[in-house]
Structures are given as structure tokens and as C-alpha cells.
Design goal:
Blueprint: E1 2-14, E2 17-26, E3 31-36, H1 42-52, E4 74-77, E5 80-94, E6 100-108, E7 117-121, E8 126-130, H2 142-149, E9 156-158, E10 165-167, H3 170-173, E11 178-179, H4 200-209, H5 212-247, E12 251-252, H6 263-267, E13 271-274, E14 280-282, H7 283-303, H8 312-367, H9 400-456, H10 461-515, H11 520-536, E15 547-549, E16 559-561, E17 569-570, H12 577-594, E18 601-605, H13 614-626, E19 630-636, E20 638-641, E21 644-647, H14 648-651, E22 660-664, E23 673-674
Parallel strand pairs: 3-19, 3-22, 11-18, 18-19
Antiparallel strand pairs: 1-2, 1-5, 2-23, 4-5, 5-6, 6-7, 7-8, 9-10, 12-13, 13-14, 15-16, 16-17, 20-21
Helix pairs in contact: 5-10, 7-10, 8-9, 9-10, 11-12
């Protein structure tokens, strides 16, 4: 992109009443030099560029505090102080998509349009977007629009704590394009906000140069998240198995409970109990032992004489148990159906809650805009109690009152869904407990029926009743062990699936880490361009032969000085003040030249810092005029260079006039002046 013009309009009180003030300056592709006396307002003009692009954080503040008081408090005119009542500034630019846009942002706030809103005029319609608020990189946010029209993808990168990802914000990306006058020359990207991003300076350089390491590191971050999720599921399975083993009076063999293991080791996981001799008996062996005891008990019962007559009491008991078993089975089926229905309800509630939260966020975004508050539909507008549809909102222009009512309704709906979800989850827990209760009792009743059947056919019901009770207990224990063994095998299969996924991710992680080193050719070219440019600007402190840029710590992707027998040092720490300024020139200009993902222009406010030499300034201007990108330099008309008072025109005398666009603030004046004739947006 490149900037076409910047303007400001101010309504201020004078002795003759309210009068319009302001300025407008036009820029061209290539080199632009804005000159004027000290305190003539060059920085005021540039600050409006930052402000219109929502980038005032790069000047160290947000909102109007980043601007000159003359734009929003008082301005001096004709020796008088004039109070500012209303003001705004505008920036027109040509985006990377080839289209022209005009951005307008309020400075002195009015009732409707706020300082957190930027109006975008594309030549046909005006669209509002907001900044410096939650989701300003979302659909209604200004920064997403700015990224889209300039082909700047919003990447997610690792956060400072390493536990989540964050967007590489447009404020980070546009740090490539702005160097402000005061703190901007203290370091490379000195005013870049971190937003909790890990190594934000390096991330921006990776982004701009199109290094694979940025995208690969993003993939590595995702792999790390996926591996952590698998580890979490692995740990959950371990806890669940241990809980079930304890409930069955068993214990699990030892295995790695934090990280997935090989299939062979998973196959080796077993459960066991200690017998009377304190020896370990695995569940498979235990099941065989119990089954043998049951078979022996059955034989002892069979040896007894055949009964002459069945006991009426046992027959009555058998019928009662049958009736009870039938009831348990019937109730269990009903509970199972209700359980499945409740699961469907819970899924529906969660889906509706998710959509409702999105609708709330959407309305909150729309509320931040002052015009064109469009909202197509309210897709989740169902009453969670009666499930009847609520009329969709299709107003062409939603009022603040309508938005507030909609948000209030949605928040009420959200609260209701949350209560329903909490209640539904509680109901599901009760159903799970009930089903477990029915399953155990059904097994018990069937075991009792089996015992009574044998009891009725025994020679003497009294003589074998004790044997049958022992047998029933053994069968109950055998059933518990068999159920646990079946569950253990199913979990081992699940663990194998997790293990396979984990080791695939682990292999991919190692492969990606090896690919990160493939950025060497680009970094080598960037380093050579930086050193060459630094040498042309007259860097002397350490000799350019000792300077390098590496893709590894310390100071990864930043210029360092490597001296024999010394630890590598960041160039800032071992350079004179003026030489470090030369380093900043070189670094930013190389990124402007090589950066495939870059705003496309570079703005420097007073680059001639720290008694800069005249030859260096001339070379900076000459290089900027030939780079083929838009460079805007704000330079004082007369300034000391190399302890000499030098006029701006002597610095540009060797530059082809066709390659430089001069903008000058008249001597002894300020950039803000009375506006004699106003023009319309279309004319601008």
C-alpha cells in the first residue's frame, strides 16, 4: 500500500466565533520529504497517519493522548488560544488490492462517532469499523479489514506463556512501517506492543521475510497442543482404570501415566490381586480359579439326592424374584431411553449456548459502530423453555435501544441455557448411577434365580443352601472381574489409538524441526543486504565485517557484532548512537525491500539523529529515492549535521527531482491553519 494524502479538520472557537482550521498534504509513490522549521508540526501530520490507521500505540499511547493538544484541546492562532470543539482527521491510501480508500477518524468526540471507530469510504459507501476493543481483529474490526485489503494474513503465533496462541496483530506488522521521533530511534521496533506474544520482534521479521520457520513454528505449536490433549486423555484413562480397579478390589500394573507408550507395553498392562500367600494373581488367572471353584461347588450339589418334593417357600421366592427381575429390566430400559433422550437434549443445549454466545459477541461488535448497524438474523432465537421461535431481527439499521434489548434477551437466554446444561449434566449423572444400580441388581437377581433353581432340584434344600450362597458370591465376583477385564481391554485399545496418534505427531514434530533450518538462504541474503547498506551509510563503530545476522540465539534475526574472543553482542550495545541509527535505517529499509508481507511503505520522523553526518543523510535520501517503494521522511528544514547547520535542499541537491516529492510547511508557520474553502468527501 502507499499513502496518498492526510488531512485534519478542526472546529475551534475564536474571537469571531467558531472557525474551521486544518491541513491537507498529498504524497506520491517513491520518496517524499516533509520539511519545515522545528515545531512546525511535522510530527503532528505524521501522528494523524498513525491515528487514522489505528496505529497510535506505535507512538506510545492509545486514542487522542497520542496526538498534539492542538488537535483536540486548544490551538494557537494569531497569538490567541482557541478551544477545540470538534476535530477529525482523514487518510487516503491505495491498498495492495489496487483500490483507493479514505479513512476518517474522530478526534474531539461527537455524540455518535467515537474515537474508537474508523469510517472507511471506498468511493461509493461508507463502512464503520472499530479499533482498540475486543475482537477488533474480527469481522467488524478495522484491523481485519486492513489486513484483507493489503493481503496481510493474520497468523496465530505462540504466546509468551507458551500455553496458547495469539494473533500476530496488525499493530505488530505495521511496526515495520513507522519510526517515530522520540523513542522510535532507541531500538529496532522499540515501540512494538508485545500483546503477550513470545519474541514478537523475531515473529514480525519471520512474517515479513516469509520465513518457513513462522508457519512451521505455528504447526509445531498446534502439534504441541494436540500432544497435550492426548496426554490429558491418557491421564484420564489411567485415573479411570485405577478407580475401577480399586472398586473391584484390584490394582493395576505400573506404566507411564503421563506419556503414551508403545503397543507392546500397553499389551503388558494387567490387573491383579494378592492371594492369601501375598502372591500376585492376575485377573485372567483369578477368573479361571473362581470358575473352577464354581464348577466344584456345582458338582458337590449334583452329588446330593434328588428331592422328592419342591419347597413351596422356594417356589414362592422364585416367583417373587422373577417379578422383581422383570421390574428391574423394565425400569432399566425406561432409564436407558431417558438417558439417551437427555444426552440429545444436552447436546442441543450446548449447541444453542455456543450460537447464543456468538450472537452476543456479534451484537456487541455492531454496538461499537455508529452507522450501518446491519444484522441479518438471530439464528438461535428460540425460547429455551417452550422452544418456540422468537421473531428474527432483520432491521436495516439497528438502533442502540434495539441492540441493547437484543443483547439483554440473549444474555438471559445464555443464562437459561447454562442452567439447563448444569441441570441436564446432573440428570445424566443420576441416570448413569441408576443404570449401574439396575445392572448390578439384574445380575444379582439372575444369580439368585439360578441358585434357587438348583436348590429346588437338590436332595435337600437345607443341606445345599449354604453351598448355593457361596456359589452365588463366587459368580458375583467372577462377573465383576470379567466386566473389569472387558473394560480394561477396551481401554487398552483406546490407549493404542492415542499412542499411534501421539507417535505420528512426535514424528511430524521432529520432521518440522529439521525443516526450520531451511530458511538459511533468505536470512543470508537479508544479512548481506543489511551489511551492504550499513556500509554505504558510513557505519564505523566495529567494522561491518564483524556484523552478522543469525537464525539462532542470542538475538535471533537481529544484527549482532562478533569479535574474536568475545561473546556475540547485539549491535545496539557496541555501536555509537549515530551508528546505531544507521543500523535502524538499514534494517527497516532491507525489510521494506525484501519483505513479501509488509505494509509497503516506510515513514521515518527525523532520521538525522545524534549529530548525523551529511554524507550519511545524503546516502539515506539517495537510497530511498531508488528503492521503488514509498518512503516518507520528516526532516527539519535546517538542522545540525556533523556540527554544521545544513539546509534540507543541500541534502537533496544530487537527487533527480523526478524521484523526490517535497512537501514544505511555510517558514514561521504551523501546519494547522484556517481553512478558507471546504470541500466535499467526493472531491477529496
Amino acid at each position: 500500500m502507499h499513502i496518498n494524502s492526510v488531512s485534519a479538520t478542526i472546529l475551534a472557537g475564536t474571537d469571531d466565533g467558531l472557525k474551521p482550521f486544518g491541513f491537507e498534504y498529498s504524497f506520491k509513490p517513491g520518496l517524499n520529504v516533509l520539511s519545515g522549521d522545528n515545531s512546525s508540526g511535522k510530527s503532528t501530520i505524521l501522528s494523524c497517519m498513525y491515528y487514522c490507521l489505528g496505529m497510535e500505540q506505535l507512538m506510545g499511547s492509545k486514542g487522542i493522548n497520542a496526538l498534539s493538544p492542538a488537535l483536540h484541546q486548544v490551538l494557537n492562532f494569531g497569538g490567541h488560544t482557541c478551544n477545540v470543539y470538534e476535530s477529525e482527521c482523514s487518510l487516503s491510501f491505495t491498498a495492495n488490492n489496487g483500490k483507493q480508500y479514505k479513512l476518517t477518524r474522530q478526534i474531539a468526540s461527537s455524540d455518535e462517532i467515537t474515537i474508537n471507530e474508523i469510517l472507511i469510504f471506498d468511493g461509493i459507501i461508507t463502512t464503520p469499523k472499530f479499533v482498540h476493543s475486543a475482537r477488533d481483529h474480527g469481522d467488524q474490526g478495522f484491523y481485519q479489514w486492513l489486513a484483507e485489503v493489503n493481503g496481510l494474513e493474520i497468523f496465530n503465533v505462540e504466546s509468551f506463556n507458551g500455553e496458547s496462541t495469539k494473533p500476530l496483530y496488525m499493530q505488530n506488522i505495521f511496526s515495520l512501517a513507522f519510526i517515530e521521533q522520540t523513542k522510535g530511534w532507541s531500538d529496532i521496533f522499540s515501540m512494538m506492543p508485545s500483546f503477550g506474544i513470545k519474541d514478537p520482534k523475531q515473529k514480525v521479521v519471520e512474517y515479513s521475510l516469509g520465513l518457513k520457520s513462522l508457519e512451521l513454528n505455528m504447526k509445531l505449536d498446534q502439534i504441541k497442543d494436540n500432544k497435550n490433549q492426548i496426554k490429558g486423555e491418557w491421564n484420564r484413562i489411567d485415573n479411570d482404570l485405577n478407580y475401577r480397579a480399586q472398586a473391584t478390589q484390584l490394582y493395576l500394573s505400573i506404566f507411564d501415566k503421563k506419556t503414551p507408550i508403545s503397543d507392546k507395553k500397553i499389551d503388558g498392562i494387567y490387573a491383579a490381586e494378592l492371594n492369601k500367600e501375598e502372591k500376585e494373581v492376575k485377573t485372567n488367572q483369578l477368573a479361571e480359579i473362581i470358575q473352577k471353584e464354581i464348577d466344584a461347588s456345582s458338582k458337590r450339589i449334583e452329588i446330593a439326592d434328588t428331592p422328592k418334593e419342591a419347597s413351596k417357600d422356594l417356589i414362592n421366592t422364585r416367583e417373587k424374584i422373577k417379578e422383581s427381575l422383570s421390574t428391574f429390566i423394565s425400569e432399566r430400559n425406561e432409564a436407558s431411553e431417558s438417558y439417551e433422550e437427555e444426552k440429545v437434549k444436552l447436546a442441543s443445549f450446548k449447541s444453542s449456548l455456543y450460537s447464543t454466545i456468538n450472537d452476543i459477541q456479534g451484537f456487541q461488535d455492531v454496538k461499537k459502530l455508529s452507522i450501518n448497524r446491519n444484522w441479518e438474523s438471530l439464528p438461535t432465537s428460540k425460547c429455551p423453555v417452550c422452544e418456540n421461535n422468537v421473531e428474527n431481527k432483520k432491521d436495516a439499521d439497528l438502533s442502540k435501544e434495539t441492540i441493547e434489548k437484543s443483547i439483554a434477551f440473549l444474555k438471559s437466554q445464555k443464562s437459561t441455557y447454562e442452567k439447563y446444561i448444569e441441570a441436564s449434566e446432573s440428570v445424566l449423572e443420576r441416570y448413569i448411577s441408576a443404570l449401574a444400580y439396575y445392572d448390578k441388581n439384574i445380575i444379582l437377581k439372575r444369580t439368585q434365580l439360578d441358585s434357587i433353581h438348583k436348590d429346588l432340584n437338590s436332595p435337600s434344600s437345607q443341606s445345599v443352601r449354604g453351598e448355593l450362597e457361596i456359589q452365588a458370591e463366587l459368580k458375583y465376583r467372577l462377573n465383576d472381574i470379567n466386566q473389569f477385564n472387558a473394560y480394561l481391554e477396551s481401554m487398552k485399545n483406546k490407549m493404542k489409538q492415542l499412542s499411534t496418534q501421539y507417535f505420528i505427531l512426535d514424528t511430524e514434530e521432529k520432521k518440522l524441526k529439521s525443516l526450520v533450518s531451511n530458511d538459511g538462504a533468505i536470512i543470508h541474503k537479508f544479512k548481506n543486504s543489511f551489511i551492504s547498506l550499513l556500509d554505504s551509510f558510513g557505519y564505523k563503530s566495529n567494522g561491518v565485517t564483524n556484523i552478522t545476522i543469525k537464525d539462532k540465539p542470542p538475538h535471533r534475526l537481529m544484527p549482532i557484532v562478533v569479535m574474536a574472543g568475545q561473546e556475540p553482542q547485539y549491535i545496539r550495545y557496541v555501536s555509537s548512537a549515530s551508528d546505531f541509527v544507521r543500523s535502524i535505517w538499514s534494517y527497516y529499509l532491507c525489510l521494506l525491500d525484501m519483505g513479501g508481507l509488509h505494509p509497503g511503505f516506510l515513514l521515518m520522523d527525523e532520521p538525522g539523529q545524534h549529530q548525523m553526518r551529511v554524507d550519511s543523510m545524503k546516502e539515506l535520501l539517495s537510497h530511498s529515492s531508488n528503492i521503488g517503494k514509498q518512503v516518507i521522511l520528516a526532516i527539519s528544514q535546517d538542522r545540525d549535521y556533523d556540527k554544521k547547520d545544513v539546509n534540507i535542499f543541500s541534502l537533496i541537491e544530487d537527487i533527480d527531482p523526478n524521484k523526490i516529492h517535497m512537501l514544505h510547511i511555510e517558514d514561521n508557520t504551523y501546519c494547522i491553519s484556517p481553512i478558507k474553502n471546504t470541500v466535499s468527501d467526493d472531491e477529496l
